[in-house]
Automatic annotation (TrEMBL):
UniProt keyword tRNA processing, yes or no: no
Alphabetically ordered keywords of this record: Ligase
Lineage summary: Eukaryota, Viridiplantae, Streptophyta, Embryophyta, Tracheophyta
Gene name of the encoded protein: LOC103633549
InterPro entries: GH3, GH3_C, GH3_M
Protein family membership: Belongs to the IAA-amido conjugating enzyme family.
The name this protein goes by in its record: Putative indole-3-acetic acid-amido synthetase GH3.9
Amino acid sequence: MNGSVDISAFKSQVPVVTYDVVQPYIARIAAGERSSILCGEQIVELLRSSGTSQGEPRLMPSISEDIYRRMYLYSLIMPIMSKYIRGLGEGKAMYLLFVKAETLTNAGIPVRSVLTSYYKSPQFLQRKHDLYNSYTSPDEVILCPDSQQSMYCQLLCGLVERQNVVRLGAVFASAFLRSISFLEKHWHDLVTDIRTGRINPSITNAACRVATESFLAQPNPELADEVEAICSSESWKGVLGRLWPNVKYIEAVLTGTMAQYVPMLEFYSDGRIPLVCTMYASSESYFGVNLRPLCSPKDVSYTILPNMAYFEFVPLDDGLRLAEDGEAVEKEKLVGLVDVKVGCYYELVVTTFAGLYRYRVGDVLQVTGFYNRAPQFKFICRRNVILSVDADKTNEEDLHGSVSRAKKILEDRGHILLEYTSFTDTSTVPGHYVLFWEVKATPTSGSGGARLDAQVLESCCVAVEESLDCVYRRCRAHDRSVGPLEIRLVEAGAFDALMDLLVSQGGSINQYKTPRCIEPGGAALELLDSKATASFFSPRDPEATGV
Ligand code: AMP
């Protein structure tokens, strides 16, 4: 740019890029080169995104003043909520917040998730514990690196304060539900702790123990009886309102892939507690807030804050088709934040303060209206993602690569994989990936090939998992936020029946391709399930190399 700050020069000269273009610069900075190869400011940390590139997590540059931008967005949430709900300052929030392990690059730059960075920042730890910032979880418990111990203690503190809790939540709905299912498994222990005033010996993290013990302070058999009576009821329908009777809403991201968790949350809240999505953000930049927080999750729109980054949009006029990673996006095609049109779909592009220039975030948004002159967007989907339970995001290509590797095991046993498809099953907690496989003995293998016993199919499950990317493997083996992968074998002809179904629903026979992912709860899933003959689960954790 030769020092120019002219917007039209920026638009005509700066290319639109994906991570692969930025990655070599990030790698050089990580190895010790100066930040100025990318950015005018010092890059102080690299934020580990849940997006991956060639199997590795993407690292986003961040500068020290970025924390103030994030704080700014957070600071808007409670004033917005208080416009709609009274009395939020009269109690505490039980928010289940977790940190993840961090590492240092060769040059000593911390590599961590954006939320870990925030919870460890002085801005979070020295926040004024005013009424809006008052959480039941002590900071030491949030900062506990063992997420199981952290979850146990956060639930314990939340139960101790049950009458005082006015807000429940987590960042993503998946984490909130995982905590509820953890509670289902561990409430006996939690009740014992409340009854005796002593914390379970499985909590070994010293800081976490001390902080929780001071919460417990003394035996409370009366509270223990109350919690026991609620938790031992046969159905957990509506349990959240019974455990936390003064709660006014549940906050979590419930848009995008998280929408699959709305029915479970409605079950636990019996549809009586509003489900609120407050913000839209990423490791690259924070984006915007929901100004109508009490609307239904399916109607949520986010108003982008123009001071978070410089926003541009790639119009998606040809049936939502997005340019592939290597495919150039014409820079002249991009439209600015003030020029987007209601009803149209766009891919989000950001220029951040920390060294991303015209960077394609990969999210598809639709304009739903304006707040004053600021456009509001519905989150439609993330580019290419077909399977996602928690932070994992698996695209069709990754799934295909993993299945291709696993099917070699079948081939060695005289069988071939004729067809496959997949879906994310969130009826289990944590949710897990399910693959439907139609398998046939190879004609040359004589008497129907060697028998396919459970062990073979279980090793196929492991092989698929071990070929999925590192975020998936971390969620499975470390965070335990994704359950073991399942292969369901279907009878011969099941995929022909699937094709008949989809063509009868208006698909073209000529252009028919087996969908590599099907909708949970849809007719396709019902059909394949009715033809399933056996099911196998991954018997062990995938190796979590490179995490
Ligand atoms: P990460 O890269 O791990 O920081 O994840 C950021 C991505 O998560 C975004 O680009 C979106 O795809 C998704 N995301 C974040 N907030 C929301 C939201 N409120 N609704 C839907 N998706 C979201």
